[in-house]
Amino acid sequence: MSSGERDALRDEVEVVIVTDFDDVASFLRVGIIGDQDLVFSSSEIETTMIGQYKCSGNFLLPVSETLQMIISPGASTQGDGYVVVKIRKAIPPCP
Predict the structure, then answer these.
(1) What is the pTM of this model?
(2) In a domain, 45, yes or no
(3) Among residues 77, 23, 36, which one has the least CA distance to residue 44?
(4) Is 2 a member of any domain?
(5) Exposed site from 21, 24, 39, 66, fewest CB < 10 Å?
(6) Is 82 helix (H, G, I), strand (E, B) or coil?
(7) Domain carrying residue 77
(8) pLDDT tens-digit profile, the chain (95 residues)
(9) From residue 10, how far is each of 55, 85, 87 by CA, in Å?
(10) CA 65-70-76 angle, 5° bins
(11) Calpha distance 43→76 (Å, rounded)
């Protein structure tokens, strides 16, 4: 990270499955390009069941970093949900 970039703290990431996917091979993961399972791996979210999944870990990332949600619906004919990311500015430690 260059000295000109600011950090952002991803305070909480929530995945909500509103309509279950009807293929057991479907999966969803949330991460970044270098680590697609940083927030949620494909085994942590049950896409075939309606539900909420929260990760409250503090992920300090450059503001320029992009979070990715990767969805593989398999042969599903249905499935719906959304992701909420709460972000706050990282406060540098006292000298």
Answers:
(1) 0.78
(2) yes
(3) 36
(4) no
(5) 66
(6) strand
(7) 7-87
(8) 444 456 666 678 899 999 999 999 999 999 988 999 989 999 999 999 999 999 887 677 777 788 899 999 999 999 999 999 887 766 666 66
(9) 10, 7, 5
(10) 165
(11) 17
